[in-house]
Amino acid sequence: MRVAVEGIPWKLFLLSGVLLGGSSQDFGQTQFICTSVPKDMDLCAATMQNSGPAEDLKTTVLQLRETVLQQKETIMNQKETIKELTSKLTRCEGMAEPGDSKPGSRRKDTGSSKNTMGDVSRGPADTLSQLGQTLQSLKQRLENLEQFSRNNNSAQASSLKDLLQTKIDDLEKQVLSRVNSLEEVKPALKNETEQRGKVESTLTSLHHRISDLEKGQKDNRPLDKFQLTFPLRTNYMYAKVKKSLPEMYAFAVCMWIKSSASPGVGTPFSYAVPGQSNELVLIEWGNNPMEILINDKVAKLPFVINDGKWHHICVTWTTRDGVWEAFQDGVLRGNGENLAPYHPIKPQGVLVLGQEQDTLGGGFDATQAFVGELANFNIWDRKLSAGEIYNLATCSSRAQVGNVFSWSESSIDLYGGASKWTFEPCRQIN
Questions:
Q1: Is the residue at 15 inside a domain?
Q2: Are 297 and 253 a contacting pair, CB within 8 Å?
Q3: 418: domain CATH number?
Q4: What is the rounded CA–CA span in Å between residue 255 and residue 312?
């Protein structure tokens, strides 16, 4: 039928649920839907055009597409952010532990044991043991000062000695009190770091006072008769050699060393150059054996020195075939080859005693710091013979000094509380 709406003719068509014979029985009760369409429009086209659900579906699809594009853009931005953060984290964490991702190369551990901000964390027993050793070392030095003051009849030295003795007595009381408190209240360990920091701060101050007193005696001993003392495992206590090393196609490095640190005595010395922080390093870190690194290539050394006694050690190397030898107390303990062959030691670097360098002249890590005493550190630009090394280890009058670096107070600067004291190796070991 045909109706008119506001003067416009329209057709009315009826849609039924299917009104053919018998179909009402299949669908139950039927209903009719009336839809108005323009007069000249095809009814099938009008039916498709007025399909409401299809329009809704199309709109929904467009919205979903726009949402997907926005999320894709967000994901790309987040990927860039994650990449940047990962790069920063990698730089902060450093490299992985020696040895093990590549043969002959060394990487550092990035685990939770790393502490580049200061004193290495340790348990109560280790702390008390180390503090006890430090106090014993201070007392020994103080006794030496007492002897010096008696021989020189110095009233000023005697006054300073009394003051230092009082400070040491106070520190011993603190350690004793600490032992008692740990035994009584073991769970209360959260204050350990703060208490240890106070005690070690006092110890560092005490080292400075003793060092000042010792400086007054420089004119009374030869410049090479001294030792360096590194009593605590920190990232700020070290000595720096004033001059760099030349280019070397062979070398011998020898020293007297004493330590009872565990695990690992740390880094007696490290030499870094621009672009390579591990140009030449001697290190015993964690439970690993002592190692010599040249251009980040590593050889394990058969040294056993953490028994609290003085030992003389030497390492020789030549760039030809990377041949190396290791001597302890004048005796050949090990050798090998293919250690950074045909790589000369580069010049214009920084030589540091007591710390391992992650950057040129810095980037120290407390977990790799040397703890102990070091003396008669010498470097040659050639391989020493077994006889020459034996003369050094036995303090022979024929023993030579290094032609690249010779042990002298005037050639070293101290930082962070590392201290000097008189040392004559043969007197100590005989």
A1: no
A2: no
A3: 2.60.120.200
A4: 6
* pTM more than 0.85: no
Taking the CB of residue 75, how many other CB atoms lie within 10 A of it? 10
Tokens (6 digits) for 262: 């565990």
**What secondary structure, in 3-state letters, does 136-201 show?**
HHHHHHHHHHHHHHHHHCCHHHHHHHHHHHHHHHHHHHHHHHHHHHHHHCCCCCCCHHHHHHHHHH
In which residue ranges of the chain is pLDDT below 50?
1-27, 95-103, 107-119, 121, 218-219, 430
The per-residue pLDDT for range 258-293, each reduced to its tens digit, is 998 888 899 999 999 999 999 999 999 888 999 999
Count of domains observed in the chain: 2
Per the omega criterion (within 30 degrees of 0), is the bond before 98 cis?
no
Exposure b/e, 272-309, CB count within 10 A at least 16 = b: bbeebbbbbbbbbbeebebbbbbbbbbbebebebbeee
263 and 180 in a common domain: no
Point out the domain boundary residue: 175, 202, 220. 220
**367-388 tens-digit pLDDT:** 999 999 999 999 999 999 999 9
* Closest residue by Cα to residue 221 from 395, 420, 412, 393: 420
Same structural domain, 360 and 257: yes
Q: Same domain for 389 and 251?
A: yes
User: 104 in helix, strand or coil?
Assistant: coil
